[in-house]
Amino acid sequence: MTGATYPTSLGTSSAKEIRLLGLDLSQDLMGKVGFGELAFWLVTQQRPTPQQTRVFETVLVALADHGFTPTAIAARLTYLSAPDSLQGALAAGLLGGGSRFLGVTEDCGRYLADALAEHEGELPTDDSGWDALALAVVQKTRQAKRFVPGLGHPVHKEQDPRTPVLLAIAEEEGLKGPHLKLFEAVGRVHPQVLGKTLPLNGAGVCGAALADLGLPIDLLRGFALLARAAGLLGHLAEEHRNGTAMQMYLNIDRNAIYQPPQTPP
Fold this sequence. Notes:
Elements: E1 11-13, E2 18-20, E3 23-24, H1 25-29, H2 35-44, H3 50-63, H4 70-81, H5 86-95, H6 104-117, H7 127-143, H8 162-172, H9 178-194, H10 202-212, H11 220-241, H12 245-254
Antiparallel strand pairs: 1-2, 2-3
Helix pairs in contact: 3-8, 3-10, 3-11, 4-5, 4-11, 4-12, 5-11, 6-9, 6-10, 7-9, 8-10, 9-10
């Protein structure tokens, strides 16, 4: 339509230059801004401080890869089936990021944000206060017969090795905010309610850290996917060098056992 305009605060280009975030991409950003810093900047429209950048990039590193997860297996098998479609294999892995894998980053951030919103203006000032708040939050979740997002891990049964590092770096940079403090308290008090001790999932701590950085709760899964894209590309590069997907496929196919359909009663 003649005269229509499409405002953007991100990037535009002309015959002679590319502008991004109001700056000249080639002169002001390339070689001067790291990718993690740029990703934060693109989302928030504000350049992160060095402290924010360190915590944000720590989260990206923590979420990049976790071995032969379903997302990595999906990417490798898709690449086996369609080696001409690298983008399809990468997309297959990213599409597998949901409530059981990767999605806990957003789920935990949202859970903590909702809990804090209910106590806005009366947040604790010490560990005992945070413990009391966390106990009330966990009890409410248990009464609703729901799980606490970010508690427990299928592999790390006692401690997720990412958790203490993330908490320490956020503390060092002065960015351990209410979401991390509440989640840390959940880790201390949940055995009183659940009757068992579960580790704080590193992906859940990532969600709390991202929320404390002020990033939009609705986009937290996107940052997990941004990080995992790098890990998946690594898996595909390894698959290209020395593939294992064919062995996965053959192992399942050769061990499949036919069972006649069950007749409805």
